Amino acid sequence: MSTLKLAWKNLTNKPLTMLLSLVLFALGVGMISLIFLIEKQVQDKFDKNLADISLVIGSKGSPLQTVLCNMYHVDDPTGNVAIKDVKPFLNPKHPLIEKAVPLSLGDSYKGFRIVGTTLEYPELYNVKIGSGKLWGKNLEATIGADVARIAELQIGSTFYSTHGFLNDGMNGHDHGQFTVVGIFEKSNSVIDQLILSTTQSIWEVHNHAEGTPQEEHSEEEHNHDDHEGHDNEEGHDHSDHEGHEGHDHGSHEGHNHSQEEGLPQQASAPQMDFSNQALLQSPEEEITSLLIKFKESNRKSFQALNMLKGINENTEVMASSPAIELNKLYDNMSLGESFLRNLAMIIVFVSGLSIFISLFNSLRDRKYELALMRVMGASPTKLFFLIIVEGLLLAVIGYIIGIALSHVGMSIFGGQMQDKYHYSFTASQFLIEEFYLLGGALFIGFLAAVIPAIQAFRTDISQTLSES
Question: Mean pLDDT across the chain, nearest whole number?
Answer without folding.
Answer: 82
